[in-house]
Amino acid sequence: MFDRRVAKWHIRIRLVGLLDTLNSFLSLSKTSVAERQKHALNRIQEALVYLMGEVATDDKDVERFYEFYHSLSESDVNQLEELTNRLEADGSQFQSWVAEMEVSKGFADAARTFARQAESLMWELISETNTRPLLARWLNRLSDYLWALSRSD
């Protein structure tokens, strides 16, 4: 972002590509879930786009990014926790490591695995740059939500 270039194999490029894949699977997850969950997934995708923008921004330009775009906050992390808690209160629970599920739930479960991979790569980026740890925490809570969603009724 902001006219900076990095190599195609740079960690920021790899992470943004993985987050893009996650975003695609979030879209597929909406095919047959309740309207309430579609709305939640839409909001998550909007937040994910801002996260991708922040990841793509060099440390030297991050203040410029904050001037023009939304940045994730603790309330975004809390919102994912609340969504997960609601699903669990509604009966989403662990039944087996191997679960048969309908297609949209399978997409949510696949999205969960991409969120976990992205979280790991995010921690690597954080260790090398000034990227905020909150972004990794948000991805962690997203994977928790997707776990619950993929096992919900």
Q: How would you summarize the topology of this molecule?
A:
Elements: H1 11-29, H2 35-56, H3 62-68, H4 74-89, H5 103-128, H6 133-150
Helical content class: over 70%
Listing every helix as H and every strand as E from the N terminus to the C terminus, the arrangement reads HHHHHH
Question: What is the number of helical segments per DSSP (H or I, 4+ residues)?
Answer: 6
Structural class: mainly alpha
Strand content: under 5%
Cα end-to-end separation: 41 Å
Task: Catalogue the unreliable spans.
Answer: none
**Overall geometric form:** elongated
The total of beta strands comes to 0
Radius of gyration: 16 Å
Give the overall average pLDDT.
89
